[in-house]
Design brief:
474 residues; alpha/beta; Rossmann fold; Four Helix Bundle (Hemerythrin (Met), subunit A); 3 domains; 4-stranded parallel β-sheet; 15 helices; globular
């Protein structure tokens, strides 16, 4: 069986077929860096990490874009209240996000575009929508998308237009629009925007992008300049983004390009605490930093997240986390027992191939991680019985390592030499990308790469003979 995924747009599980295999283009909505991301956010990021890892396991070349929303109503309000420029306010939270990502063993995305670095593509996208008659200037000077002019609006969320209300993250501007259902593409600059440095000049007036516009512009500009396409293979996020955010992304993107925006939409369910969605609004948040400070094994967090299918709500509790930690301990003991047993002839070849088959069957079925985890524990019990009978396994450790390439729940740490080589290779790749950005005058991207490297403890020194790097000590 080949990989099948639940496409929110089609409301069914479908075979996954990328536009240009083996390449897979994937956009995942990243954090809004006005504050620390909480574990509910990271449940979504972990499901996306699982998806990316499994695609790589299947042999696909994944190009993942994860944006950083560093300008919107919330970031501006927070910066204004703190009395600092927007860029200064968000930077600690960008760094914190990368630290939390690494703590939870989430593979870095291919790129992390920031909204403030893509103002030009956003202005260009608004211009295209104005030219096509899908956008108009409101009474307040902002530019709005006319929902009624896009006939298929509502396909993703399956909400009838007559049921729509003003979308999220839109200021109280009902009387400035032609229709209360329309949403802001470009907001006329306010005093608060100007005060924190969140306003830009555009042909249609000084202002800033609307939240929905940002993801469309970043996704389209990145895949267009790299692959000369305007369609993504995958777009993932939490279920709370289906409407209005992802619905509006479709309207903006397809309205401008005339092409399908995304081939397959995936959405992860909420993480709840005592039956309530984890949210800063409800005051029940727990951050990755909290867990790290408490000494929680990140593998246990991953195991807990993967114990429930990504399309089902997950109840977070200390008891559930403790159970996941016990499971990780059992897998660790099994791994150590295999190491002590050493290599040799034994009947585990069948067990190893069985694990691979059961694992793939589960994961091919819309990333059924709970079933995949059950398969590995069944494998552990079987091989333990063989070890008790005196067999000396030769393939079990390899089968376990293959499983962990996708799940990332065991501390199969490379040797220091391997780790050093892998880091050096990653640094050289990022330095080359930074140099290319600097040569093309894209200093925003260059600065973003420097921040990304700093988050992994890499310091850069620009010299007349080229950049030098070193690992920060302490």
């Amino acid at each position: 069986m080949s990989l099948r995924l639940y496409n929110t747009l089609a409301r069914q599980v479908e075979p996954f077929t990328p536009l240009a295999p083996p390449r897979v283009t994937m956009y995942t909505c990243g954090p809004t860096v006005w504050n620390y991301a909480h574990i509910g956010n990271f449940r979504t990021f972990l499901f996306e990490d699982l998806l990316r890892r499994y695609l790589a396991y299947l042999g696909y070349e994944v190009f993942q874009i994860m944006n950083l929303t560093d300008v919107d109503d919330r970031t501006i309000k927070a910066a204004r209240e703190a009395g600092v420029p927007l860029a200064r306010h968000v930077e600690p939270f960008v760094t914190a996000f990368f630290e939390d990502r690494d703590y939870l063993r989430i593979k870095p995305a291919s790129i992390y575009p920031r909204a403030t670095e893509h103002i030009a593509p956003m202005i260009e996208l608004v211009g295209r929508l104005l030219d096509r008659g899908l956008a108009y200037r409101g009474e307040d000077g902002s530019i709005y998308y006319a929902v009624n002019r896009f006939p298929t609006y509502g396909r993703l969320s399956q909400i009838e237009k007559r049921e729509l209300k003003a979308g999220a993250r839109v200021a109280s501007d009902e009387y400035a629009k032609e229709d209360v259902r329309d949403f802001a593409l470009w907001k006329a600059a306010s005093a608060d925007d100007e005060a924190v440095g969140a306003a830009w000049d555009a042909p249609f007036g000084r202002g800033r992008p609307g939240w929905h516009l940002e993801c469309s512009a970043m996704a389209l500009s990145e895949v267009r300049k790299r692959f000369a396409v305007e369609t993504l293979d995958l777009h993932a996020g939490g279920v709370d983004l289906i409407f209005p955010h992802h619905e509006n992304e479709i309207a903006q993107s397809e309205g401008a390009t005339g092409q399908p925006f995304v081939r397959c939409w995936l959405h992860g369910e909420f993480l709840t605490v005592e039956g309530t969605k984890m949210s800063k609004r409800f005051g029940n948040i727990l951050t990755a930093r909290d867990l790290r400070e408490e000494g929680v094994d990140p593998a246990a967090v991953r195991m807990l997240i993967f114990s429930t299918h990504y399309r089902k709500q997950l109840a977070f509790s200390d008891r559930a986390l403790s159970g996941a930690a016990e499971g990780i301990q059992g897998l660790g003991e099994f791994r150590d027992r295999l190491a002590r047993a050493g290599a040799g002839a034994g009947p585990d070849a069948e067990a190893g191939s069985s694990l691979d088959a059961d694992f793939r069957t589960a994961m091919d079925d819309d990333l059924n991680a709970p079933q995949a985890v059950a398969a590995v524990f069944s494998f552990v019990r079987r091989v333990n019985r063989e070890l008790d009978a005196g067999a000396r396994p030769s393939l079990a450790a390899g089968a376990l390592a293959v499983f962990d390439r996708v799940m990332g729940v065991l501390d199969l740490t490379p040797t220091p030499k391997q780790a050093e080589t892998e880091l050096a290779s990653w640094v050289e790749q990022r330095l080359a990308a930074r140099q290319q950005a600097r040569r093309s005058g894209d200093y925003g991207t260059a600065d973003s790469i420097r921040a990304e490297m700093a988050a992994r403890g890499v310091e850069i020194e620009d010299t007349p003979s080229g950049p030098r790097w070193k690992i920060r000590v302490g």
